[in-house]
Each structure stands twice: as C-alpha cells, then as structure tokens.
Design goal:
mainly beta, Immunoglobulin-like, Methylamine Dehydrogenase, Chain H, 5-stranded antiparallel sheet, 5-stranded mixed sheet, binds 2-acetamido-2-deoxy-beta-D-glucopyranose, Semaphorin-7A isoform X1, signal
Length: 633
C-alpha cells in the first residue's frame, strides 16, 4: 500500500482534468492504476535509441526493430528470439562522423505478402530483407522504404502489394518531401508545389463501392502560406489520392499523382473559439460502409492543451467532391480535379493542370455532425491516440479512447451518453519512460505499449481492479466490466453481466446481500504521546471519503486534493484518541467501509504482534503529503 500511495501522491502533481462537454455528472478525475494486474512485460536485452514496433492483429507476439537487430517476443508462450541485420558492404555515408551514420537502424517492420519486410538505414545505404519463417532473403535496395539516417518524418504504408512512403530516395539534403507509391502499380510522387514543408502524420487506404474509386488519404501538417501575425503558423490537412492513379500523360507529369487534393481540418472549441491547429496523431476506425468510417484526430495547441475531433470519411469525400478549388474561378472541366477515372485511364491533362496549380479546396473538413466541435479537450499534452469499440451486453457498442500522455501514462476515456469520461490513468512502466508506441489489438482487447527498453502487454479489461462488490463494479462505468456470479468480470468472458453505462439508475441492478464485507476491526496498539495517522485509499476520485471515530465524523475528503489518499493525522495520542476508526466511501448514494481500525492503548493491551505506530514508509508518505499541501497552497 505504501508504494501505491507514494505513486498516487507523485501523480497528484499532474492534475487530471477532462473538459467534459455534456451535462450530467461533473465527475472529473480518473482512477490511477500503477503496474496493473494481468500485464506482461518484455524487456529488450539492451535499450534501443530508435525502436520500431510491429504487432499483427489477433496474435500475442510483438516484433521490435532496433540497431542492427530484430527482436521477437510472444507474450503467450514467452518465446523470444533475436535476428541480426548488420550493415552490408560498409554503408555509403558521405561524411561519416556522426555515430548514427555507421549503423543499420531498423526503421520498418511490416507484413508483406506471406513474409515480413524488414528495412533499415544500412549506414546511409537503405536496405531491405524479406523474412519468411526466420529465413532472411539476400539484402535488397531499400531506397524509398528506409531513410538514410533515422528520421521522424518518415511514413510507410503497406497495403499489399502496394507500398506508399514519404521517404527521400536520395541522400542529398534540400529535397522537398513527397508522398510516393514505391511498390505496386508504377512509381508516382506528389508535385513539389502542392505541400509547403509537410510533416506527415499517418495514412490509410479506403475501399469504395467500385475499385477504381478506392482512395488513399494521408494526414499532415504544413506551413501556413498566410504569414500574418494572427494566422496560425501551421495548418493540419488531409490529402486524397486515387489508388488507381496512372500518372499524367506528358513526359513531365508521367510520374506524378494526378488526383491530389488537400483540405484543412478544423478543430475549434466553440465555447472559447480556441483553435487546435497542430495535428499530433490520428486513428482510423473502419465501418462496413466506407462513408461511416471515421478518423479520430488528436490535436494540440500552442498552450499545450489537447483536443480530439472526429471526422467521417463521408464528410471528407463530400468536401473533396463538392468544394470549389481555392483561387480557381475558371470553368470546371468534364472530369473534375480529384475525380478518379475508370480503371486503366489517365486523368485528362486539362484536369491535371488545374488541380496541380490549385491543389487546395476551399471548404474545410469539420468534425462530425451535429456538434461539429471537439469530442473533448483538456490540459494534457497527449502524444498518441487509439480507439477501441467494445460490444456490451445489449449489443450496443461503446467507444473507448486510449490517450498516451507525455508522462508515460495512458488515459482510458469512455464515450458515455452524457459525454466523455476519463475513467482510468494507467501508469504503464514502473519507471516513467516515455511511450514510443501504442498498438491496439482489437480482437484480443490488448494494448502493446513500447518504450526504448521494453514492451508491455496491457489488457483493456482490468475488472479485477475494482473492489469486488456489485456497486463498485457498476459505478466504475467501465464498458469492459460487469457484475455477475458474485464477481466483477470481463464482458467478453461472460456476456450475461450487469452494467451501468446508460443513464438509467444503477441501484436496482445490484441485489441485496451481494456486498460481502467482514465488519471486523483491526486491533492496532498505539503508545500514548506518539504520533499516528490513519490512511484511507482513494480508489475513485468521484467518491467522498469520511473518517469516523466512535461513530462521529472527524474528517471528509472530496475532490479538493484529488490524487491524495484520505489521511487523518493524530499529532499526540491521548486517551481520547483510542477507540474505533472507520473510513467510508460514498459515491452516488452507495456507501462502503474501506478501513476499520481499533486503536488500543499499548499499556493496557500488551501484545507483541501490535503494528509499529509508524514505519519509515508511512513517514515518507506523510512528509510527501505535507509537501504536496504546501505546493498546492
Ligand atoms: C483470432 O484468433 C482465434 C484463435 O487463434 C480464432 O479462433 C479467431 O477466429 C480469430 N479471430 C479473427 C477475427 O480472426
Ligand atoms: C517476401 O516474400 C513473400 C513470400 O515469399 C512474398 O509474398 C513477398 O512479395 C516478398 N516481398 C518482397 C518485398 O519481396
Ligand atoms: C480486537 O480485539 C477485540 C477485543 O480484545 C476482539 O474482540 C477482536 O476480535 C479483535 N479483533 C481482531 C481482528 O483480532
Ligand atoms: C503530548 O501531550 C503530553 C500531555 O498533554 C505532553 O506532555 C507532551 O509534551 C506532548 N508531546 C508532544 C510531542 O507534543
Ligand atoms: C467537500 O467538503 C466540504 C467540507 O468538508 C463541503 O463543504 C463540500 O460540500 C464538499 N463537496 C462535495 C462535492 O462533496
Ligand atoms: C472512543 O472510544 C474509546 C474506547 O471505547 C475511548 O477510550 C475514547 O475516549 C473514545 N473517544 C471519543 C472521542 O469518544
Ligand atoms: C505552434 C507550432 O506547432 N508551430 C510549429 C509550426 O511549424 C514550424 C515548422 O514547421 C515549427 O517550428 C513550429 O513549432
């Protein structure tokens, strides 16, 4: 309990507040979970400076690319192995000197057909290998698939047999970044004039009803050509391309995409008009109808706040199909810019010329109707977003967002009928390492969270965390968990559980007698004139905690100091301090006893087994508590 409280105290330094959009309960603080149960860890044999991670859906294994090495670990069987990928032929760095230069950093690990594609910098000579059942192919030229040196602005999308990439193909500096098709139907790249200093975020392909309409969408930031003082310096964008684009008809345009268009993404808080213009990460949520497929965009602003805005691909497509081109007032050609042509055909050169000189559409992409505003925003600087759809008992689906903070923790945020609620903060790593990667396994409901030294497998359903009674289980409002058979258990293990996710009152769902608590007091001997403190663990920040002494209320803790346990401190124990102490939590009218202690005078109650009044750990806690109170003042 000691270390738990310590971590809780430390975590208190980052106050967790979600700007909950809708009305309803104004509950603001999540439960904080450290080293959650059921997690499994794989530590690399050595730390990696630029690790890359690959996990295939519905498996229990993870691949990690490091410096000259590929690690494999299966969490279910604990099988691990390592494969070496050394620099071939000494590399080709023009001015070796930087220690980064003479190494082969693996930058891409991906499934490609039946094999795995593994690519690395190869000491300025990008190289790829095809790995099939642990058999390495001979090295191949990897230019365009791996950068010359580790580079944060590289994006590779594998949509077998096609591969798209934003990686430079030449070592010379000063090249304008391009979005390319590097494998599959013929090489194509974006015109150098259509993006201004782009920073790529993510890309996806999307199947439409007819294959010639299939699209590629990519998300990026770029410099704002509007340099006025009040204009934001960066704009967040979505770009579209047709998958079957065959390039232009002239020799100059033969290798250029002819279906490129870009639009701005809007994420503005209507209440404050606060603009979240820096796209940090996106997550794609497919749907059976492509128009309903969604993209969850995570944005930050200059003040370090974050917002999540959700867009539908139907809306994005409408903007590209119907909007005017910015700055173009001429007549529209028969084939409109951005329109996909029938299979095997080329975009007419007239259409391409207009699009190439006016690549931006005037309309902007707004978040989903009806609100057209952020799902929520708050004061955290989130780094990554993941979205999981959870099916619950009544066949309904709930959306759970996983947001990686810049402090090594993950917030679990649930979309509930009355608005979003941050129900949990998970401290993933025992040491506070930055989160480099967060991969969701939707089928197995697992998170794979990677740092420079390890990968942790975290179950999304952690129902054992909730105090094992019906009320606590339902009050948690965790879509993964419900109450059945006297246990708080995962919905996927028992679809017959009771849950409390809608706005109906929950009280009727718990039967009397399901709360099984022994109401015995723990006897604790305390010497007179010593100091003593009583500690009640704060498990839910939505509850109020009360300390009673001989049935009289002596202390109340509520949201004032959220992440701190509820202490009651006795400066100098005198005879009136002895007796029964009870700590009770109250949430939504549900009360439960959490701590029962009976302080007895050692002089009268001679026992060798009595607990020491104060241990070193508890003093440390107290000191921190005092420190924290000072800090908060
Ligand atoms: C996931 O794997 C399990 C066991 O290997 C299999 O039974 C199940 O059908 C798989 N699910 C999907 C969606 O492939
Ligand atoms: C790698 O090997 C697999 C299986 O032989 C094949 O399907 C795939 O196309 C290969 N990939 C590359 C890039 O050569
Ligand atoms: C505490 O002491 C009282 C009185 O001696 C006794 O009845 C009770 O069982 C003790 N409680 C525990 C948990 O040992
Ligand atoms: C505690 O109280 C007793 C009696 O009231 C007093 O003699 C003693 O000095 C006090 N101890 C401390 C540490 O304040
Ligand atoms: C918190 O406690 C204070 C005093 O202890 C009380 O006045 C206030 O109403 C409480 N707030 C809530 C939300 O329970
Ligand atoms: C509480 O009860 C204990 C024992 O029953 C007694 O010694 C103590 O004086 C009481 N204290 C108060 C404040 O009622
Ligand atoms: C507010 C913000 O993030 N500004 C960035 C805009 O882009 C330039 C370069 O692309 C960055 O240097 C700024 O920090």
């Amino acid at each position: 309990m000691g270390s738990r409280s310590l971590v809780a105290l430390l975590a208190a330094l980052c106050a967790c507040r979600l700007g909950v959009r809708a009305a309803g309960r104004s509950k603001v603080n999540p439960r904080i979970i450290t080293a959650p149960q059921g997690t499994r860890e794989y530590a690399f044999p050595r730390s990696e400076k630029y690790p890359v991670f690959y996990h295939e859906e519905n498996t229990s294994a993870i691949y990690v690319g490091g410096e000259g090495r590929l690690y494999y670990h299966d969490f279910a069987t604990s099988e691990s192995y390592m494969e070496d990928f050394p620099v071939e032929n000494g590399g080709q760095c023009l001015k070796p000197g930087s220690p980064e230069d003479n190494k082969n950093f693996i930058t891409l690990v991906a499934k490609h057909g039946d094999g795995m594609l593994v690519c690395g910098t190869g000491a300025c000579a990008p190289t790829c290998w095809n790995l099939t059942q642990r058999q390495k192919s001979s090295p191949q030229d990897g230019r365009g698939l791996a950068p010359f040196t580790p580079d944060a602005n590289s994006l590779v999308v594998v949509d077998y047999p096609d591969i798209y990439s934003t990686i430079k193909k030449s070592q010379q500096n000063g090249k304008i970044p391009r979005f390319r098709r590097v494998r599959g139907g013929g090489e194509l790249y974006t015109s150098d004039t259509v993006m201004q200093n782009p920073q790529f975020v993510k890309a996806t392909t999307l199947k439409h009803e007819e294959s010639h309409q299939d699209k590629i969408y990519y998300f990026f930031r770029e410099d704002n050509p509007d340099k006025s003082l009040e204009a934001p310096r960066n704009i967040s964008r979505v770009a579209q391309l047709c998958k079957e684009d065959k390039g232009g008809t002239s020799s100059l345009s033969a290798s250029k995409w002819t279906t490129f268009l870009k639009a701005s993404l809007i994420c503005v808080d209507p209440a404050t008009k606060g603009n979240f213009n820096w796209l940090q990460d996106v997550f794609f949520v497919p749907a059976s109808n492509w128009r309903d497929s969604k993209v969850y965009g995570l944005f930050t602003n200059t003040w370090g706040s974050s917002a999540v805005c959700v867009y539908s691909f139907g809306d994005i497509d409408d903007v590209f199909r119907t909007s005017k081109l910015k700055g173009y007032n001429g007549p529209n050609p028969e084939i409109k810019p951005g329109q996909c042509v029938s299979s095997g055909q080329h975009t007419p050169s007239e259409t391409f010329k207009i699009a190439d000189s006016h690549p931006e559409v005037e309309d902007r992409v707004e978040p989903l109707a009806p609100s057209r505003s952020p799902l929520f925003h708050n004061k955290h600087r989130y780094q990554k977003i993941g979205v999981h759809k959870v099916s619950v008992r009544d066949g309904q689906q709930y959306t759970v967002l996983y947001l990686a903070t810049d402090k090594g923790s993950i917030h679990k945020v649930v979309e509930l009928p009355e608005g979003v609620q941050n129900i949990m903060e998970i401290q993933v790593f025992s040491r506070k390492e930055p989160i480099q990667s967060m991969i969701l396994d939707h089928e197995r409901a697992m998170l794979y969270v990677g740092s420079a030294s390890r990968v942790v497998e975290v179950p999304m359903a952690m129902c054992g965390l909730y105090r094992n009674n019906c009320e606590s289980c339902l009050l948690a409002r965790d879509p993964y968990c419900g109450w059945a058979g006297g246990r708080c258990q995962a919905v996927h293990q028992n679809p017959e559980v009771h849950q409390n996710l809608d706005l109906n009152p929950w009280q009727g769902k718990c039967q009397k007698g399901e709360v099984m608590e022994a109401d015995t007091y723990q006897n604790i001997t305390v010497v007179p004139f010593s100091r003593y403190y009583l500690n009640c663990p704060v498990e839910s920040h939505y509850a109020t905690y009360n300390w009673y002494h001989n049935n009289s209320l002596i202390k109340t803790c509520n949201n004032t100091h959220p992440q701190m346990d509820c202490f009651y401190f006795i400066q100098n124990v005198s005879h009136t301090h002895y007796g029964h102490y009870l700590c009770e939590s109250e949430e939504d009218g549900f009360k439960q006893a959490l701590v029962r202690e009976r302080l007895v005078n050692q002089l009268r109650f001679m026992s060798q087994k009595g607990r020491a009044t104060t241990t070193l750990g508890s003093w440390l806690q107290l000191l921190l508590a005092a420190l924290l109170v000072e800090l908060l003042h």
